[in-house]
Amino acid sequence: MGKGRLEAFSDGVIAIIITIMVLEIKVPHGFDLAALRPLIPVFLSYVLSFIFLGIYWNNHHHLLQAVRHVNGRILWANLHLLFWLSLIPFVTGWMGENSFAAMPVALYGTVLLLSALAYFILTRTLISHHGSDSTLAIAVGRDFKGKISVVLYAVAIPLAFVNSWLACILYVLVAVMWLIPDRRIENTLTL
Fold first, then answer.
1. pLDDT tens-digit profile of 31-83?
2. Where are the domains of the chain?
């Protein structure tokens, strides 16, 4: 089957996730800048999550540019990814509302870790369907950034109970690493 519906559905779900996140930021009752101070952690957690969702949306788009068609296994692998991404508004809100306390930061990292693993599963399912000599398989290669991301999340989760800010720095590090455009698929498609 074609990949168009999968792309459109995924785009819509990610757009809804971002919308839900921004709606969770409550307007303060005060009228001066001091009224915004309690929202700083909420806003910071929103910005980080918005960046992560943007990274997933961008990479998902590139991933699907390298494939021709999808099957039922791919649809379920994609839904698996969307499930974990759909939890980002909850953990974002909990983390922000509790000023980056240990348990919310650890759960945030757990959702990021499971999202990364789901993305890995989707990628492997697509490669399995299209073959180890496919454009996608060549483009993904050894996927160093994907593997190092999983390691950093796995380190950050227990670290959150020692120092939640250090765990958050690792999350930011992963985001920055992915903000640098990953041109593997684009470069492979233009060869």
1. 899 999 989 999 999 999 999 999 999 999 988 988 888 999 999 999 999 99
2. 4-189
- ∠ at Cα 117 (152, 191), nearest 5°? 95
Q: Which residues are within 8 A (CB) of 87 and not within 5 positions of it... i.e. 6 or more apart?
A: 111
63: left (phi over 0), alpha (psi -120 to 50) or beta: alpha
Q: What is the value of pTM for the model shown?
A: 0.92
**Does residue 56 sit in helix, strand or coil?**
helix
Annotate 88-112 with b (16+ C-beta within 10 A) or e (fewer).
bbbbbbbbbbbebeeebbbbbbbbb
